[in-house]
Fold each of these.
Amino acid sequence: MTDSEMRSRTAGQDDAPVTASKTADPDRKLLAEAVTINRPARELYDFWRDPTNLVSFMDNIVSIEPIDRDRSRWTVKAPAGREVSWESVITKDVPGEEITWQSAEGADVANSGRIEFRDAGRRGTVVRAVIAYDPPGGVIGELVAKLFQREPRIQTRRDLRRFKQLMETGEIATNARNPRILAGEGK
Amino acid sequence: MKAITWHGKHDVRCDTVDDPAIVNPRDAIIRVTSTAICGSDLHLYDGYIPTMQKGDILGHEFMGEVVEAGPKSSLNTGQRVVVPFTISCGSCYHCSKTQYSACENANPADNQDIGREGYGHPMPGLFGYSHMTGGYAGGQAEYVRVPFSDVGPLVIPDESIPDDKVLFLSDILPTGWMAAENAEIEPGDTVAVWGCGPVGLFAVQSAFLMGAERVIAIDHFPHRLELARKFGAETVNFEESKVYEALMEMTGGIGPDAAIDCVGLEAHGAFADNIIDQIKASTFLGTDRIHAIRQVILATRKGGRVSMPAVYGGFVDKFPLGALMEKGLTLKTGQTHVQRYLQPLYAAIAEDKIDSTFLISHRMALEDGPLGYQKFHDEQDSYTKIVLKPGQAAGATAA
Ligand SMILES: [Zn+2]
Ligand SMILES: [Zn+2]
């Protein structure tokens, strides 16, 4: 995923992001979701930059263990009580603006992504996540779909909404009537 | 605890369910002292609102006593509170603009997809009103978990003000007020209000307070029309008179300056097109019955304002879009931003400027809730408003 790829392919005619393309390259899975969060970009970036924070609002994640400043090991729930693990490497880091990562060579689940934080004035910050993974049909694609348990786009959108809830309100909204019911939901 | 639960069309029960407890830091637990059955609960009762699940706890108009407060709640144990039916976080962009029912955070992330699919954006979080509005347990119960309790509930400091006077701050009173506000009433206006249920009657009172010279109230239940007359409205009984013709003549051929549709899905009138719409709705063609709003748009004067607080759920056909455009009407609608109106309306109640108790026709034990639903549904003329009192002995229905 290059910068130019992320912008428009038909510069001057269409400002829509490439992820909204009707004729997206069928050989790769690329999705983007954006949410506006009523907090400063730097605060959101700082929270996201510490991978141990991500577990609190991302579904299906068992643990994220930092290895060094740019590397971390992700362990994710897989079907039938299994777990899948891979190493993730930050490949680009612009403080307060964006973080790009990809799975290390030889990962079971090849994936890459970017999170952008763009100042939105009185509305706060536009947070945009771009996720790329191998096509469905391939072994990796199938595995990714199972890991996400739902369509990856829906999962990404829900993760971003929970991130927004946590950053704006200090908690993640739930309709669970009591902690026992909440635990029963597996969250 | 005991709670009124939904099990299907015309099937609500008083079940024993799990007690609520603090889940999030901003939560509070309320012991319910009074909870009302709302006209929009009848839409659930009639099976018109999708995404209800068996066992869902109903109720969105309630008040009570704080029995437990989370570490980040601003409430204290023992306080008496009225709880708005809209659940709002207070910290998102929409909440900062006091558009509380557009709150982006109260509806849990997993439930937001439903509204996004149907409406383009997630629905607000509401108590006891289906899973597209969050799937929150409602207040027709002995206890309720109230999320974001530092933003919603209004503390009633004056113990001498009874529940009956302030309970309706939770929904129908601010809803009637916002309905009138959305009609952008100017001094001297003639305002027509369709539907003299609780919201319609509060809209009548609010319209006068905002300077309307005349209010014309439209309904078919004699008792409800009588209540509207008590507040100074002229009335039209649509079973006896042609509404459009009556309004034109009463306004010298101009039409009302502003019109308020307080009917919505609840159009129980026996109109031919109502029945057709009803068949479509019951066969899940997803069409709302819109007789009232059709009539509203045709009758409102050119350049006038239409306010639509009434609940609609899905899609409509035969909507007079051409009339809306050609006459240059303004249409305003939406779920009530309850928190915005709590303080001023509480002050109006305390100063006896707004009468909010006239509506209550029956008080019942929580256990008698299922009977209450049936009576409210079948006998709307005499059952104008039912308040359920948890703790009151069952069978002891009091007027
Ligand atoms: Zn209501
Ligand atoms: Zn909010």
Amino acid sequence: MSQHNDTDHISGRSTTGHEWDGIKELNTPLPRWWVLTFYATIIWAFGYWLVYPAWPLVSGYTVGVLHTTNRAAVTANLAEFEALRGEKMKALGTASLADIENDPALLALARARGKTVFGDNCAPCHGSGAAGAKGYPNLNDDDWLWGGTLDQILQTIQFGARSGNAKAHEGQMLAFGKDGVLKSDEIVTVANYVRSLSGLSTRKGYDAAKGEKIFADNCVACHGEGGKGNQELGAANLTDKIWLYGSDEATLIEAISNGRAGVMPAWEGRLDPVTIKALAVYVHALGGGK
Amino acid sequence: MTKNVTSKELMGGDDDPPLYAPQKKIYPQRVSGTFRRIKWGLMALCLGVYYLLPLVRWNRGLGAPDQAVLIDFQSQRFYFFFIELWPQEFYYFTGLLILAAFTLFLMNALGGRIWCGYLCPQTVWTDLFYAVEHWSEGDRRARIKANAGPLTANRLARRALKQAIWLIIAWWTGGAWVLYFSDAPTLVKDLATFQAPAIAYIWIGILTASTYLLAGHAREQVCLYMCPWPRIQAALTDEWALNVTYKYDRGEPRCSVKKGRAQRALGETAGDCVDCNQCVAVCPTGIDIRNGAQLGCIQCGLCIDACDNVMKRIGRPTRLIGYDNDINVQRRTSGKTELFKPVRSRTVVYAALIATVCAVMLHALLTRSLLDLNVLHDRNPVAVKLSAGAIRNGYTLRFLNKRGFDRVIAVDVDGPANAQIHIVGVDSVTPDRPMIVLARDATTELRVLVTAPVDEKEEKTQPVKFRITDIGLGEVASATDHFVTP
Ligand code: SF4
Ligand code: SF4
């Protein structure tokens, strides 16, 4: 600032000595506390640099004397959250499956937990909403190969089907064509017969009596009298409207010729028992559970 | 506290002007009169409401908080006497803010910054702190003299007393604040026995500090430098608004009582102002109102009282300073009568807006539903085919029971022909019309399945309406969505 001693003669105040087009700027200094506060914030900034991570370096950043990082904070929060969740999950562990379904609070907890676990582990096959796909059952409907009660669902999740686990569901659709048990014309006939079981149209001129005979000789053992299926063996109900692989003639011929043996992995060992329980409740509550 | 420092001292003695100005110590003088009385009254009212409101009880029935005004963060409720608001009804606060803004505008159009002078918390608490200062350290002259003199034991004791009382008031202010957020009697007990949550002590600390600093030390600095309202109101005001005004048409030229009398006897003009500086001495922001309307004036009216007292003593008409405007100064100078126009297009518009917002809010409040239903359709899968061929759709229904008691409600569905409803986790004795119990003052979320034997030829999407009926009260709420066929 230049040396000056200029006073505005109307207001009697000193000016800064700056002049634009004949207008002089009055000297209106800031209040002292304001300036001091400003200085305090500058000092605060230096303190902040010291205490917290502040300056980017070539391969990293200054750490600060507190060693505070967002990552550490997140880790701590997660640990806290896990501890909190552990408490609540304990209740799920001790209650029976039926009790969980009858207690609104436990049901809500199990469904919430089950939904996230389902998304992480089951969605790749069954879809994020459990709607399934060709070869992967829709878990929202009421058709269950291995049974749809809470206990049956739990068991399927625990041990899987054809998973290699000793307690897994076994039994499969045989390859009647590949193994030479049925000739191709017999396969076509029985395929049409199976379609007729659920009221689907059949090929013109197919021999229903022959179809029934082939079915009785080869299929009844698993699919039962009239094709109602058998959950012990995972044999599908052939009379309903739900078809895991499709209901058209070609798909049925393929199934009868080459067999079917879809695999459901066993989750015991990969997920903890409480989580599997929550998963079973979630799947059962999707709406199709028996 | 702040010594008057010359610019030289501040800048280490060179000749540059000061970079900053120290706060000028203001010693407002005690005054009595109409406006002082109004200010005492309003102060008692405002502080009374602030300090005592959390203690007022209000019976809401068993289990519900019985505090008349309560902001319950934990369960996300706001209670105000008979009103209970949920978080999603936060728009009422928007309405209140709009209302507050318009009220401020209306006040401004009528009487300038009367908010600043009478009702602003900064003014109210500063005024209270000044009263404490008067009481412990004496009036203006005594304080000026004491501050100029040496620091005697007596003076130190008076100062300590003042600071102690200030701190107690500040602490009490912070204490009353936290009572709005928790059951007051319980919290008071917990605070006293050090059982209260840490956050309560932290907030009391913050508000004690801010009250003490703002009302005790920052004082007029808040009005002059921190508060944006003086700047805003200057743009909102008009020439009809009443402001504390020195009526220079009556006051100039200023002369002593004797000289004034002599001049008038000779038929010459003489002002009523005797230049006694009483108006300046009482001013809490330390300004001279005789220099005209200015930013520093908070329109507290104390200079009016001071000057009125002077005018009465010298036998001249009062209100040399008064609520007036430039229009009237001009009218008087040109011999016309004074004119006050509180009803102007501006005030009418503000009043109408206030009335409208009030009416809208009242209507919303009176017709708000205490039973509510939201519905969300399942996205994945949107529809499920069952083994018998029927179609089922899943929905998430959210029930809101805003009443203070549990209620039994029945759920009906109007949708595709022969639609059946099932609520997951609910086994109802009336399967086609499930009944559920809604917990009081809570939201309940349930998964609902609707199954219907849909014909292939029927529409792919049909409307579905969920209707809930309070079995006891007959209250009904509904929500609509769609029933989708794959
Ligand atoms: S000038 Fe008068 S009205 Fe304005 S702040 Fe000072 S005392 Fe109050
Ligand atoms: S109090 Fe009244 S008479 Fe005294 S200086 Fe102020 S305006 Fe003039």
